[in-house]
């Protein structure tokens, strides 16, 4: 199982002074390049999906590909949904397979940001999923072509950072100390003294957004001051654009030739980042020391006290509709036995994001109401169990 607990991963990076790259995935080319680079570098990696870029792809299809790639990789991988703007989008991210989420209310004032983030943490932690929050404001949108002025950013306040972490219970803190999303004119000036004070006040893994364009010395200083996750997209996007423009210089280029060598350029850049951020060669120790991330299948086999298909089908349809809205529920399937002479005629297969969901699901008002009103009255003959789903690459 290559998927690992993101909290374990970033705590390991934080305690061992390296940073894990969170490389944004916008296509299968980016996905395969990032995984290949991580495999070659024997580095842990974070596959980063950004809500602001959902217009670039079908998120459900891309997330299915990301999940598949992560599970068959031999290096440790986490799947992170970045910049979730609401509790609904955060819950959807978990249902789609993210085992880490960022909730972004950084443009709100401090009390509103704090309260909204606290609610996000309560929801995600009930699913076993760690949360990144952001305090301060990093200007710009990752991957945009427009230059962004540093002055539009708002740096993180040390006293607010301490209060924010304590009141919200976040696991990782994204900070603003001078970086911006997207391209930037001139030299980037980082307030590393501020960074050092923030680390001392909160003592949790710190995150840098807008990390493109920094020098090697600046990256090392960030890592030494507690940065354990660095987001990367702009540099990769610019590389892909440059390669594509070069390919298009040949007026006779075919569709396939337009994309020649893009993946190779991305692999090289990702490997350079991993080397620079000191994560190269860390895969083995991370796999040993960090917990595996496994989904749980909640299985129910049962018989009903009625053979009326309208009643049974209605009960199952209502359950699919209602139970799928519970946080941490990734999928709800119902079935009927092919052999009607078997011991049990019907089944439920409900996929949970993690074992943590087992307890929160049992007491969730939607589940309790549905089970007491529709299911249990006609399904007294039943067996229920929960199964942790294995995904060992060596078994395939």
Structure description:
This protein is α/β, with parallel strands linked by helices. The protein has two domains: 6-289, TIM Barrel (Alpha-Beta Barrel); 296-395, Alpha-Beta Plaits. The protein is 43% helix and 18% strand. It has 15 helices and twelve strands. The protein has helices spanning 6-16, 28-41, 59-72, 87-95, 110-125, 158-168, 192-202, 216-224, 234-248, 255-258, 262-276, 283-289, 309-323, 356-363, 365-375, and strands at residues 20-24, 45-50, 77-84, 100-103, 131-135, 172-175, 206-208, 227-232, 296-303, 329-336, 346-352, 381-388. Strands 1-2-3-4-5-6-7-8 form an eight-stranded parallel β-barrel, surrounded by nine helices. It has a four-stranded antiparallel sheet with strand order 10-11-9-12, covered by helices on one side. Helix 8 links the parallel strand 7 and strand 8. Helix 9 (234-248) packs antiparallel against helix 11 (262-276). It is globular and about 75 Å long. The N and C termini lie close together (11 Å). The model has no long low-confidence stretch (mean pLDDT 92).
CATH architecture of the largest domain: Alpha-Beta Barrel
Task: Give helix % range.
Answer: 40-55%
The number of helical runs is: 15
Which structural class is indicated by helix and strand composition?
Answer: alpha/beta
Low-pLDDT segments, ≥5 res? none
Described by the principal axes of the CA atoms, the overall outline is globular
Distance between the termini: 11 Å
How many structural domains does the protein architecture include? 2
In what order do the strands lie side by side in the largest sheet? Answer: 1-2-3-4-5-6-7-8
């Amino acid at each position: 199982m290559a998927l690992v607990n993101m909290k374990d991963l970033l705590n390991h990076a934080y305690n061992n002074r390296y940073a894990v790259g969170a490389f944004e995935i916008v296509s299968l080319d980016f996905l395969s390049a990032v995984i290949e680079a991580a495999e070659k570098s024997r580095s842990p990696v974070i596959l980063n999906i950004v809500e602001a870029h959902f217009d670039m792809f079908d998120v459900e299809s891309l997330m299915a590909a990301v999940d598949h790639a992560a599970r068959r990789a031999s290096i440790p991988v986490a799947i992170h949904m970045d910049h979730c703007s609401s509790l609904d989008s955060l819950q959807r991210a978990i249902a789609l397979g993210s085992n880490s989420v960022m909730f972004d209310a950084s443009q709100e004032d401090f009390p509103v940001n704090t309260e909204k983030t606290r609610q996000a943490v309560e929801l995600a932690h009930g699913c076993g999923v760690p949360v990144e929050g952001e305090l301060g404001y990093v200007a710009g949108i990752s991957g945009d072509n427009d230059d962004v002025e540093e002055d539009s950013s708002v740096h993180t306040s040390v006293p607010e950072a301490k209060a924010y972490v304590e009141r919200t219970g976040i696991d990782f803190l994204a900070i603003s100390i001078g970086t911006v999303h997207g391209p930037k004119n001139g030299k980037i000036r980082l307030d590393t003294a501020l960074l050092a004070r923030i680390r001392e006040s909160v003592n949790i893994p710190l995150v840098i957004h807008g990390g493109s364009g920094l020098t090697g010395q600046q990256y090392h200083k960030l890592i030494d001051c507690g940065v354990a996750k660095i987001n990367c997209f702009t540099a990769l996007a610019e590389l892909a654009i440059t390669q594509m423009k070069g390919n298009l210089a040949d007026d006779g280029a075919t569709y396939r030739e337009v994309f020649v060598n893009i993946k190779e350029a991305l692999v090289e850049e990702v490997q350079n980042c991993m080397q620079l951020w000191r994560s190269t060669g860390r895969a083995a120790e991370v796999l040993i020391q960090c917990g595996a991330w496994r989904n749980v299948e909640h299985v129910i086999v049962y018989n009903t006290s009625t053979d009326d298909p309208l009643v049974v089908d209605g009960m199952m349809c209502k359950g699919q509709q209602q139970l799928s809205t519970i946080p941490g529920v990734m999928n709800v399937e119902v079935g009927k036995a092919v052999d009607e002479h078997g011991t049990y005629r019907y089944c439920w297969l409900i996929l949970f994001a993690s074992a943590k969901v087992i307890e929160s699901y049992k007491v969730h008002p939607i589940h309790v109401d549905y089970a007491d009103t529709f299911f249990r009255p006609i399904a007294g003959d039943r067996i229920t169990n929960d199964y942790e789903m294995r995904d060992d690459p060596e078994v395939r």
